[in-house]
Amino acid sequence: MLGDALISSGAITATQLEQALAEQRVTGALLGETLLALKFITEETLSRALAQQAGIPFVSVGDRVPHPAAVALVPEPFARKHLLSPLELAGEVLHVVQANPFDVLALDDLRQLTSRRVSATCATPVDVRMLVKRAYAPRAGGADRERPAAEVHEQETPAEMRLLERLVREAVSSQATDLHIEPDEKAVAVRGRIDGVLVACDAIAAAEYAPVLASIKTLAALEPSESSVPQDGRASVMIDGRRVDLLVTTMPTMYGEKVALRVVDKTKPVRALSDLGFSRKDLGVVHELLEKTRGVVVVAGPAGSGTTSTLYAMLAHVASVSKNIITLEDPVERQIPSIRQTQIRPKAGFTFATAMRSVLRQDPDIVMIGEMRDPETAQMALRAAVSGIVLLSALPSDDAASAVRRLTDMGLEPYLLSSGLVGVIAQRLVRLICPQCTERVTYPVKTLERVDLTLDPGVSFHRGRGCARCRGTGYSGRTGVFEVLAVDSAMQALIRDRADVRVVRQAAVQAGVKTLREDALAKAIFQQTTLEEVIRVGGL
Ligand SMILES: [Zn+2]
Q1: Taking the C-alpha atoms of 108, 112, 115 and 118 in order, what is their torsion angle to the nearest 10 degrees?
Q2: What is the pLDDT of residue 141?
Q3: What's the gap in Å between 73 CA and the centre of ligand 1?
Q4: Which of the two ends of the chain, N or C, has the fewest CB atoms closer than 10 A to its terminal CB?
Q5: Alpha-carbon distance 238 to 219, whole Å?
Q6: pLDDT at residue 278 above 80?
Q7: Beta strand 84-90 with 242-253: parallel, antiparallel or unpaired?
């Protein structure tokens, strides 16, 4: 087939083909390779013919440079293994250039890996290798020599900034919430927190680290020469035309300063309440809480448990032009139209408490406070709520009962708290089983006992085997597990009496509140998550 095509296009003669076929019988090599080895055709002629046979366009690469957004989606080992290069990302379509136009399996894998539609063109292996090099090599200044003219604008950005931007771009595209840059004896490891778990994602050569660290410090307005004490600040970088904010902290370690970057991507859409993982019943209770015209609703959970997403979803739910909604946040993590969002700056003396004072003079209907950390803020919030404002806030605590206790421990008057607190939503995040590699799993009786289950033939559990899409973890994405407590008159009485945490917890269960663990277990039974995750979030 290939031979005929080459003859009919005039690339080779019939005699040359015969000669090549004879040679091929001896070596067992592919016909194309044999024709190349005999120098009857050039690599380009062969690639063109193969592309035509495969029915995909042949392209000359020239001085094209793969777009970082596309590069961020394709791991370098994958590109090298399959000899293909990411080229650009147009909406949901990832354009790649491959050397072997018949390698459709690679494209299938890529589709799964990136969750994007993939469109391929073909180029010569030499060109594809060059593209791969351009895609993944440009980190240090040394690579500049090989850079084509198209990248001149990039050369104006210092190499260390480009490297930093690349790391942040990767973090954003892989949905990482934090980046940790950790110097080691030999190299500097870069790890990202994806779905709540740290994943190794890159490494920087030790020699390249000092300028990167210096540029991070400059961006975040930290003291550049100070390396013996922890520092923290804020920075922002432009990634593909949009601003990504970073909360920067540095920490001295044995091998130098470690940097943690919290990625704040305000352009990420706010999720709907119904997408967060509430059971139908709990969602109904949350809606009722949000219909109230006064009172405090607390979202309780430790750091990284999704409380911020829930607060934003609640705000988006109540947002309307007829309501005056003000938020006090540190940092502002999402932007919601029709809401006035205020960035708290404790370092500049603009604290939650001072901001709260001025907000209350602005006649708000709903106020969201990022977190009630200090008694002064909590006190003001509660007084405001009693007087006719809906106040939403996060509170670091383990479950609904301990959130109530924590508020009492802050010194809030029990009578005020009992009338002001209308609801507590406690939450955690569990990882979702990767849909691509989910399979049935039988847990040992011991594991079932840990979650208070007996073997029931009617119930089956699943778990992810691990695949390319989930980076071998078996999980992809997360969902919330919730404990939603609406404060009723019985609960009010318990709060007034400063009842013990256990008593409050028991009363909640009696009132029909589903606990965090029960909600997590329900999600395992519905095969959304694993028993391991139930055990993890349940602290079992
Ligand atoms: Zn998987």
Answers
A1: -10
A2: 39
A3: 16
A4: N
A5: 12
A6: yes
A7: unpaired
Q: How far is the CA of 371 from the centre of ligand 1 (A)?
A: 35
- 136 pLDDT higher than 80: yes
Q: What angle do CA 467, 468, 474 make, to 5 degrees?
A: 35
Tokens representing residue 223 in the block:
């003291």
Using the mean position of ligand 1's atoms as its centre, give its distance from the Cα of residue 89 in Å.
23
User: Are 198 and 189 spatial neighbours (Cβ–Cβ below 8 Å)?
Assistant: no
Long-range contact set of residues 282-286: C-beta below 8 Å, sequence gap at least 24: 282/482, 282/484, 282/514, 282/519, 285/423, 285/484, 285/486, 286/314, 286/423, 286/425, 286/484
Ligand 1 centroid to residue 114 C-alpha, Å = 12
> Which residues are within 8 A (CB) of 43 and not within 5 positions of it... i.e. 6 or more apart?
36, 124, 125, 126
Quick: pLDDT tens for 404-449: 999 999 999 999 999 999 999 999 999 999 999 999 999 888 888 8
Report how far ligand 1's centroid is from the alpha carbon of 164 (Å): 29
Ligand 1 centroid–CA 113 distance in Å is 9
Closest CA to 410 of 325, 498, 339, 332: 498
More confident residue, 509 or 54: 509
431 CA to middle of ligand 1, Å?
12
Percent of the chain surpassing pLDDT 70: 96
- To the nearest 10°, the Cα dihedral for 217, 222, 223, 226? -70
Q: Which residue has the tokens 């089956």?
A: 460
Q: Using the Cα atoms of residue 225, residue 226, residue 228 and residue 234 in order, give the sign of their dihedral.
A: negative
- Distance (Å) from CA 519 to ligand 1 centroid: 24
User: What pLDDT score was predicted for residue 540?
Assistant: 62
Q: How far is the CA of 463 from the centre of ligand 1 (A)?
A: 9
Q: What is the CB neighbour count within 10 angstroms for residue 13?
A: 12
Rounded to the nearest whole angstrom, what is the distance from the C-alpha of residue 466 to the centroid of ligand 1? 4
Q: How far is the CA of 66 from the centre of ligand 1 (A)?
A: 27
Distance 412 CA to ligand 1 centre (A): 48
Measured in angstroms, how far is the CA atom of residue 439 from the centroid of ligand 1?
A: 10
Span from the CA of 473 to the centroid of ligand 1 (angstroms): 7
Is 214 in a helix, a strand, or coil?
helix
**CB-based contact 427:194 (threshold 8 Å):** no
Distance 192 CA to ligand 1 centre (A): 18
Q: What 3-state DSSP class applies to 457?
A: coil
Amino acid (one-letter) located at 442: T
pLDDT confidence tier of residue 197, bands split at 50, 70 and 90: confident
Give residue 476 CA to ligand 1 midpoint distance, Å.
7
